[in-house]
Every structure is written in structure tokens, then in C-alpha cells.
Amino acid sequence: MDTIKIYRLRRYISIGLEILIILTLIGIPGSSILSTTTQGSSYIVQGKSVDAVVELVEKYEGTVTSRLDIINGVAAILPPPAVAQLLTEPAITAVTPNVIVKSVDKGEQYAAEKAKGGDVPATDYPDVVGADVVWSEGVIGRGITVAVVDTGLAKHPGTMQDVDGNQKRILGWAAFTSDKCRKPPCDDNGHGSHIGGIIANTEIGADGEWNGVAPGVNLVGVQVLGKQGDGSYETVIQGIQWVVQNKDKYNIRVMNLSLVSPVQSPYWADPMNQAVMKAWASGIVVVVAAGNDGPDPMTVGVPGNNPYVITVGAFTDNYTPDDWSDDYVAPFSAAGPTLDGFVKPDVVAPGGHIVSTIMNNSYLIKQHQANRISAHYFDMAGTSQAAAVVSGVAALVLSNNPGLTPDEVKYRIMNTAFPWVTETSEAVYSMWQQGSGRVNAPDAVFADDIQGAANEGLDIAADYGGTLHYEGYSYYDNTTGEFRLRGDLESLTNRFGVWAGDYGTWTGRFGVWAGRFGVWAGRFGVWAGNYDVWASRFGVWAGRFGVWAGRFGVWAGGFGVWAGGYDAWTGSEPWAQSGYASSGFVQSFLDGNIPNASTSTAFVGKWVDE
User: What's the predicted TM-score (pTM) here?
Assistant: First the structure.
């Protein structure tokens, strides 16, 4: 089946220090397609084979700027008539605008505690997720390489030097931006260095412990965003493609993508999602940020809406890392379900007041001096940072269990997470806000009674091949005004499976995490309360409900949000004020219309309130 590209703008995602790529498709003043010249504009052209696409682009006087074999396409400069001409060719499946990305940062000043007694402060998040317990058993991530696909990696001692003091810890480097550095690795922006430090920092903090979650890992840096956080779908897909091509050379087992784009189509139609699926299928655990457009439902972005990957939301320890009772899911953390009905995020991890590595000449330090902790440390908040924490945990899991597949790693991380409940075991947050709960490194790494794989019932090869696509279990019940799960999952207890879409339950009412790794003694964590149903049904609700083998009308059972089209909506839905709430969007989505390339724009980045 030919994949039809579907695009449309919903309200833009606010990303707090999250370098995020946003491809939107209604007009905004000042918007432009990347590389618009007298010769034409930049597009991503996909087809049945890359060679056929190249031939057709050249036939219509276009210029190929890069081959994107991972998605059967190319990036190309096309003259205006060529877009319509290419879409008439049977060998072409999609023509997508390749959009310029600009930084629109808006700073929030945090009351950061400055480093005392030296340049290296302590970091709390490794202890908050139990990484220090894992280290005590001799597992620090050795033998695993993590790819950081971001703004680059700076020459910071914590990321350049391994735990043995060797300087050749960054094994590989690739740059796909126009502002390449003369002596890589480099990171003029600082975001990628912050992410890399969360994952892998080997510096010893004031508490006498490593500052990164997995200090034993190696790194590769893949620069897809420039000094001001600017990039494009083309550069990101090129970066993912490079990681897949070099995974065996560098033993890349984990890829971190702290990049978020708004949802404009089913997950399978988005070019970045297609590249991500190829990476997952190749054996790479892909960890992505949910986005910072929370707390409203249906705010998880791309590629976080991809059902296969590990999508991470954020919680904060409320500046009390040793006291779990006052933690809460951050209001900025994006919530599900996805437009395809999947439960997202998958887990939550520390994402508030995260201290990590940066160089003092970085763009972000110059823009946000108040967030500077010391000459080489910086404070940020966001699901970007939470995703990096989980990338570190995934590396620890693989270091101890190198034979695991990505689906098995995801299963272990989700099935050992602690859900957030009240003292009476009632869920404080729904599964669409907290996923399976708070990530728990010791049990994810060491539990010997976890057997299973995530993404049950999904055929990823058929999915990226365009023959089968899937929908999740989530739907919106207009009668009750709640998000629910279909089928026999309606009976999930403790309100994990029912959500009215509101937020604020944590205000003045903190819950408890169901379990505590602090008492871990080499065994799998114990679920508190009545979690037998929740735990045992993970393989089902995190899987797929129906199969999409054609256009939208043949969804199995009819998709809960969109069934009946726009006329079936009451106007009271939680997304009523969003970009989804128009008959034009609904009809375009259901019909699978090709986007109007002349009304494209993109923008990135702003700080979030924690």
C-alpha cells in the first residue's frame, strides 16, 4: 500500500530547553520553507526506491541535496511546478516540505544552588532512579555506546574522559549542520552536551559519586541542530540514518532523541517516525522525549507518539531527592493518548532542575546566565532531560543483559517502574500522564523473573513497509467525558484506565510511589496495592487494538476520538480549543490529504516553568 502523507498544525508545543523540531502546516507570519531560493524550495521526496526518486527529481529539474535511504527518499530543491508533477508519478509516495527551524527561547530563572567548594557540583538524579544501587553491583554501562542525536557534544571532561581516565571515550562523530566545527566534537549551543552529561558524565560530584547515570558507556555525537538550535527534518533523518549505518562499528545500542515535533498525521506517515522505526528494527533502543506541552491530554509529540520507542515524561523530586512523598509529575510534561490511540508516555523520569555538563562559551549559557551552576555546569528542566536519564538506564540494562532486544529492554523498564498512587492505592495520575510510572533502575537491570517483550502484536517491518498500521486501545467517551481503554481493559482498577483529562490532583495532595528501590535486595520490586491486573495486562494495553490496512475509515472498531468525524463531536472535548478542533483538520486527516506546502512553518524552543 502506498503511504499517504497527512499533515496539519495543532497548537505549537512549548519545549523547555528542549531543542525541538516542529514541522507545522498552517501559516504563521514570518514562516518559510528551508532553503528557499530562486531555484526552488527544499522538500523531502519519498518513493518506492531511492534511485527512482532521484531520477524523477532530476526529470523535473530538481536538485538532490542528500540521499535518505532509511526512508526511501531524498532531500531536494524543487522548482514550484515540480511538486505537483512529482505527485502525479506512481513511483512517488510523498512530497514533504523540509522546514527551517528557528530558536525562540523564553527564559525562566531557576533558584539554582551554586556549586560549592569547586567547579563540580553533585547531581541527584542518578540516586533518584537508583543508578547508584546498580553501580554498587559493578554495572556502570561498560561495553555499550549511546548515540546523542542533538546539537553536538562539547569537549567537557565529564563526557570526553572515561571512568579509567582515558580521553578516547567519544568513539564517533557526524555533523549534518551548516556550522560544522573545525575540530570535532563540538557543541556551540550546549543542549546536546547537557544531554550527554546526564547519560554519561564521569566527573565525581561533591557527594563523592559519578554525576552521570551510566558513567561506563561510550558515546557518539551526531550533530543535527546548529548553534541556535536550528535544523530540519532532513538533518535529523540524516543523523538517524548515520547511527543505523554505524551501529555495528561503534556498538551503538541506545539512541537518545530529545527532539519533539507536533503531530500532524498518523505516526506511520511522519518521515522522522519512519526513520525511528528503522532504527528500532535494526536493534537500537530509541529513547525520546514526550514533549513539554503538558499537562493537557493529546500533547505528546513526534517521535514520542511512535508506539515502538520508549517515550519519557518528566517528574520532579521537588528539591528533596531523598523524600519521595512530595514528588509530582511536572505540569509541563506532555500527556497522551496519542492521536492513534496509544498510551503514552511509557514512563516518567527526573526532569526538573537537572544539573549537567556544558561549556562556558555555549549559546545557552550566554542567553541564560541565571541557570549557570559553575563554569561547566548548567541547570535545565524538561522531558529532554528525563529522556536522557532513561537512556542511561537503558544502557545499564544492556550492559548487564547484552542479549536483550529493544522490545525486551522496553518491557523491563516499563514493567519495573513504580506507579504513582495515594495512600489508599488510588492512582494520582492516569496511565496517559505517568505511563507505567517512575523509572526504577535496579529492578530494570537485575530482576531475573521478567520475561517478555513490549510492542505485542505489532509488526514493525510491515508497519514501516506500509502494508499494516496500528491503533491503540485509548478512546474518548463523549458520554462520560473521560479517556478510557477499549475491550476488556475497561475494568482496569484504581482509575489508571480512566481520565477526564484534568490536572492538578497533585496540588496539596501528594501520593506515594508503589514500591521503593531503596529496600532492593536483588529481587524484583513489589507492587503496592492491587496491581496484579495492571502489571499482568501491560503486554496488552501497551500493544495494539486494531489494524489500519488502508485509509482511516477501515480502522478496526472505529477510532475512539475520530469515529463519526467532526459532526460527532460535542465541543466539550479536552482538545476543543486546540488545532484539532476544526472540521477542516478532521476531514483532512480522515481523507489523507497531502499538505499544502505553501503554508508551512516551524519554530523551536522555549523554557518551561517547572
Answer: 0.84
